[in-house]
Amino acid sequence: MDKLIVRGGSPLIGELTVSGSKNTALPLMSAALLTDGPVTIHHVPNLRDVTTFRRVIEVTGTTTHHDPATSTLTLDATNLTKYEAPYELVKRMRASFYMLGALLGRGGKAKVSLPGGCAWGPRPVDLHIQGMKALGAEIDLDRGYVVAHAPGGRLQGGRVRFEPSSVGATINVLLAAVLAKGESVLENAAIEPDVVEFCTMLRAMGARIEGLGTRTLHVQGVDQLNPVTYSNCPDRIELGTFMIAAAITGVPGSPITIRHARIDHLGDAFLEAFARTGAELEIGENLIKVTAPNELRPVSVKTDIYPGFPTDLQAQWTVLLAKAAGNSKVRETIYPDRFKHVPELHRMGVNAIVVGDEVVIEGGKPIQGTNVMSTDLRASVSLVLAGMIAEGETHVQRVYHLDRGYEKIEEKLSAAGIDIERVSYDEWADPA
């Protein structure tokens, strides 16, 4: 097993480059199942989740090829013959449940295992299943599998309302709706950039979708979709993480350049909160520059659905607040128990208390390096950030969580001045 050793005290300098979006790449990969012929997607990061989803897709008979050197992924579903996504693979990643909509849309049938995923918080798939039923699918649960079929071999279309709004459910129902016979209306649909980019690729393939970027999507089903070449967007969560890293470890007066950046994808709430910390932000073409302030100001935030403050940046923001002088808090409204990073930050000397759906932080206190344990993707990167501002060494264990969503992060940070390295270790070895 791997861990990251971070030696605190080194400033972040120079440049960082954002990889392609993981949360967008996975839906784009799903869309490739809806057509015969090669679909090519550029800017696909070389991540554990991408590899896992490729294996899920290949079970169907679809061929895939990923070239990490060029970040290019090609998928060809011409020989798709198996309409199943097995438990052994789906359990590793919740996004594998996109196979339900993709296979139902492609061939009117699907057998997909109920998913696994991150260790924190319930994220039921009821919305996904209700949406498929609204489009005309008949669904049974059989020993942990969702077994679905469309009478007559093709979905009819229908009206779906998401309560609450859900990125995953919106994407899954769209996968099923674009090849349905009739019209579908998706109400209270998610408007995250991931969804808009996904719809843009579907439209390039020939799908008829109106209302992109709004809460109501109108889909007129078509008989077929066509292969396409498409460029994935930059990862907005990695961008936000790098912005926070620059604010807490940058040298005041010396800007950090972040390339391949879509600042508009972060949402107003994050950008407004970031500006209030005192960090300076300069926006250029496909890049931004962040300059750390002489003293960070604490800014309390509340997570919310897009364009609200992203839940996927709340753990990182907690570290920023630990460095800022003064008291502040983070309220988590999306997944109220998403605070598994807080006990690990306690081990580093961070004074933070979880009360219900809030964590209250007393900032400006010394942070000490120690051994900490990753529990999920965003918690793990928050521990890396904490290690960057801690005194001494921080050993971040179980970084397989980190590898799900951050491409070569230790190489990127090392090239930008951070003392960080990846090493293998035996988690069960007796202490020396």
Low-confidence stretches: 117-122
Overall geometric form: globular
Cα radius of gyration in angstroms = 22 Å
Q: Helix segment count?
A: 13
Any overview of this molecule?
- Helix content is 29%, strand content 25%.
- The protein has 432 residues and is an alpha/beta fold.
- The chain has a four-stranded mixed sheet, covered by helices on one side. A four-stranded mixed sheet has the order 2-15-17-16.
- β18 (301-302), α10 (314-323) and β19 (326-331) form a beta-alpha-beta unit.
- The protein folds into two domains: 2-19 and 234-424, Enolpyruvate transferase domain (UDP-n-acetylglucosamine1-carboxyvinyl-transferase, Chain), CATH 3.65.10; 22-231, Alpha-beta prism (UDP-n-acetylglucosamine1-carboxyvinyl-transferase, Chain).
In short:
The protein has 432 residues and is an alpha/beta fold.
What descriptive keywords fit this protein?
single chain; UDP-n-acetylglucosamine1-carboxyvinyl-transferase, Chain; alpha/beta; 24 strands; four-stranded mixed sheet; globular; 432 residues; 2 domains
Topology:
Blueprint: E1 2-7, E2 15-17, H1 22-31, E3 38-42, H2 48-58, E4 63-67, E5 72-76, E6 84-85, H3 87-90, H4 98-107, E7 109-113, H5 126-134, E8 138-142, E9 145-149, E10 159-161, H6 167-177, E11 183-187, H7 193-204, E12 208-210, E13 216-220, E14 229-231, H8 236-249, E15 256-259, H9 268-276, E16 280-284, E17 287-291, E18 301-302, H10 314-323, E19 326-331, H11 341-347, E20 351-355, E21 358-363, E22 371-373, H12 377-389, E23 393-397, H13 409-415, E24 419-424
Parallel strand pairs: 2-15, 3-14, 6-7, 10-11, 18-19, 22-23
Antiparallel strand pairs: 1-23, 1-24, 3-5, 4-5, 7-9, 8-9, 11-13, 12-13, 15-17, 16-17, 19-21, 20-21
Helix pairs in contact: 1-2, 1-7, 4-6, 5-6, 6-7, 8-10, 8-12, 10-12
